[in-house]
Structure formats: C-alpha cells, structure tokens
Amino acid sequence: MVTDQVDLVQAKKLFCIFVARGFEPEEAAVRSGIPIDGDPARTACLLLGEYGLRRRIARLTKALAFCAPAARARSGLERLALGAGYGREEVQLADGADPLPPDLLFHLAEVKYPKGGGVELKFFDRLKALSLLAGLEGEGGEAESPLLDALSRSANALAGPKGEQGRED
What we know:
Layout: H1 5-20, H2 25-32, H3 40-48, H4 51-67, H5 69-82, E1 108-112, E2 120-123, H6 126-138, H7 146-159
Antiparallel strand pairs: 1-2
Helix pairs in contact: 1-2, 1-4, 1-7, 2-3, 5-6
C-alpha cells in the first residue's frame, strides 16, 4: 500500500503501465497499490482525469501496439484465463434480488434478458484462453520486444523496496 508521496508517484506509474497493457482502469488502480476510497471505479476515474497520466498511458499504449501486438494478445489471454473480475456493470438476475457485483463478471461475454423472463449469461472460455496462452508460450519467448522487457523490469523495480526504485519523470 502507498505510504508517502514518492510511493504515490511510483504507484501512478504502475497504474499507467497496467492500463497500457490492457487492464481495466479499476483493476490497474487496485494492482498498482493506489489507495482506494471504497470504490475502485471512482479512484480510476480520478486518476484518468489527470492529463499527465492520460498522456503517459497513450504513449505507452502506442509503443506497445507498435512494438508488440502479440504481447497485447498475450495480455488479454492472461486476463481472461487468470484475471480477476473488474470493469463490468451490475447484472440483475431476478426482480427484487440483489444484483451480482461487477467484480464477479469480468469473464462474462454477454448478458441477455429474454422476453419470456429470466437472464441468459454467456461466459468466455477460460480453458480455451489457457490453451491459447500455452500455445503462445510454446512458440518461443525469445522473440519478445525489448520494450516489453524494459517495461517489465521497470514495473518490478517500482514494486520493489524503496532503495531499488527508479528515477521519477
């Protein structure tokens, strides 16, 4: 958890990296260690309201899309196969019943409310995503982009002890 201003700056850098890698802003806020005031969506909106962070995210996203489209596909597959649920609206299963919380619905592909009543839920196939991910790993990890390697090292350094943190932009 973030304890001082330096840690907050580092957490915001991690937030930008996570969003650029394709994580939902809510999940990126939680994973980066930014203090959450009860609602990750609210915190993510406040972070995305900062011009400097949006600019950094755009720069990182452009670099990732240009240098390593396969890494973006891998990131999406990792989130489907292994990720937590963030970024969905609440789903009402029945009249008067409590809605399902959004954090349980990331793997939900589609929600239909048929005319006859009820709810139809379609889920992404996590096993297929794992299988595709394993296939990508089998193709050889040596072809990864130096940019992704640098981003990974940077994220690890930012998450490490205070003495190992990188310079600030």
